[in-house]
Write a structure and sequence with these properties.
It contains 19 helices and 4 strands. By secondary structure, it is mostly helical. The two termini are 44 Å apart.
């Protein structure tokens, strides 16, 4: 039969300690006995010679039986001068470590401890280090992805803000002042709108003629386009007061816009600092809300009863022009819409004339004033009216009207704009944090890799030492610790 000494002994790494105990190489209660040895090591370690090999040994962290054997080897060099004439060491260091070694050898508790250490490192420590590396790897990927996202969001925020500025028609250097000075240009805008409206007088005349014609001369007494008519006759100067009471005020006390402007200049510089906000709530909606073209109406003076009878002075809201005041401006827009609807219908009728015109019977002849208006004239009036309406519905102008009637509205607008402006900086700050996160994770990865490779080297050495120690108990037969340990000891 084949000689037993040729057959290697294979032991599964996960069952190493059980294997040693079941074959009585190590006693069941080895752990209790090892406590005493650990205590002695703790004290002995405090007094070690300065020696590179020892420093190298202790780097492994957990000192085991095989370290003790090596330390004695080193001490034979460093302590040789302390031998007495009988050849024994008088050095306390040597005595301590020789005692540690002999305690370790008793019942092979040193082998038991080293085997348990080997199992623990393979089953827990090495996998934990690998997981830490995976996590760091993932952290680097996530950080890079998020950094990219935040930089894109920063660029978008910048674009968004610039778009907002150009919609408002300002440069964005001193938001408040720029908005206020734009608002102060409204009077000339209103003037130009009023002039355009006055050009529509013939269209209104045609509207009236046609209404009379359709009603056979007995048209309803409701006056057509009353606000536009006031503008036809009085221009932009006509006030809400006049619309309300049907007479010209003796005096007009307009809200003083220039005072409002001056009061504001002082607060500008202080309040316009960029606020990066540390609350980093980045879920900020897209566009500034320009409303649905509808104007917010702010009543500056609520109670105007009794003022008229007394002095005929137009004050507050009533002192504003029809286009300037939110309430009447809405009515002006409604009248423009009414005119557009009429003109569109008329043009359509004229173009499809002859098929089935509900108003005209057979050969009836229309009045000259209606006959003389061509389709192209109707379309031209229609275009003029539409263009005035869209000027009044311009989002920027809507903001400016609101500012002009309510100084508080400037604050709201400036806040919204500054929120948009500061968003870029906030996203950049977040991107920077992500960049730092990646650096930290890379550092973490490097350190863990080094630690893992060091642990793998130490564990390989420990494996060989344990194999050799078991081999001694079997007359030098080859011992292989195998199984999960191979996977664990692949370096990175």
């Amino acid at each position: 039969s084949m000689d037993d000494s040729d057959i290697p002994i294979d032991i599964h790494s996960g069952k190493l300690l059980d294997w040693l105990v079941s074959r009585r190489h190590v006693t069941k209660d080895w752990q209790k006995k090892v406590v005493d040895v650990r205590e002695k090591i703790k004290h002995a370690i405090l007094d070690m010679p300065e020696n590179e090999r020892i420093v190298e040994l202790l780097k492994g962290g957990y000192i085991n039986y095989f370290h003790a054997v090596q330390i004695i080897d080193i001490l034979k060099e460093t302590e040789k001068d302390s031998k007495n004439f009988l050849g024994f060491y008088s050095s306390q260091r040597m005595k301590d470590w020789q005692e540690i070694e002999s305690l370790y050898k008793r019942d092979s508790i040193g082998l038991g401890e080293a085997s348990q250490l080997l199992q623990r490192v393979v089953q827990y420590e090495i996998p934990a280090l690998r997981r830490t590396m995976q996590k760091a790897d993932q952290g680097i990927l996530d950080g890079a992805k998020k950094e990219k996202e935040y930089l894109k969001q920063a660029a978008d925020a910048k674009k968004n803000y610039e778009k907002e500025l150009s919609r408002m028609g300002i440069a964005g250097r001193l938001l408040r002042s720029e908005l206020l000075s734009l608002a102060s240009e409204l009077p000339s805008f209103i003037e130009s709108i009023a002039l355009l409206i006055q050009k529509l007088a013939p269209a209104k005349e045609y509207y009236e003629e046609f209404r009379n014609y359709v009603h056979n001369g007995s048209a309803p007494s409701v006056s057509l386009l009353p606000l536009l008519s006031l503008i036809f006759s009085h221009g932009s100067a006509v006030t809400v007061y006049e619309r309300k009471y049907g007479k010209t005020p003796t005096r007009v006390d307009k809200p003083n816009f220039d005072l409002l402007l001056k009061a504001d200049q002082g607060t500008e510089a202080a309040a316009d600092e960029i606020d990066f906000g540390d609350d980093l709530d980045l879920d900020v909606g897209g566009e500034i809300d320009f409303g649905d073209g509808g104007d917010v109406v702010i009543d500056v003076i609520a109670d105007d009863t009794g003022l008229v009878a007394v002095d005929g002075v137009a004050r507050g809201d009533e002192a504003l022009g029809l286009i300037e005041n939110g309430e009447t401006r809405r009515e002006v827009k409604e009248e423009l819409e009414e005119l557009i609807a009429f003109l569109s219908a008329r043009a359509l009728d004229e173009e499809t004339e002859g098929s089935a015109d509900i108003f005209i019977l057979g050969s009836e002849v229309r009045p000259e004033k209606i006959r003389s208006i061509t389709v192209s004239q109707l379309k031209e009036w229609n275009a003029q009216t539409s263009s005035i309406l869209s000027e009044l519905n311009n989002p920027q102008k809507i903001h400016l009207f609101k500012i002009r009637t309510s100084p508080q509205y400037v604050e709201t607008l400036v806040e919204e704009l500054m929120g948009k402006r500061d968003l870029e900086g906030r996203y950049e700050k977040m991107a920077k944090l992500m960049e730092e996160k990646q650096k930290k994770e890379q550092e973490n990865l490097r350190e863990t890799r080094n630690q893992l490779n060091l642990t793998i080297d130490n564990t390989k050495r420990l494996k060989k030492e344990v194999e050799a120690e078991i081999s001694k108990k079997y007359k030098g037969r080859q011992v292989n610790i195998m199984g999960g340990i191979h996977q664990a000891l692949v370096p990175v």
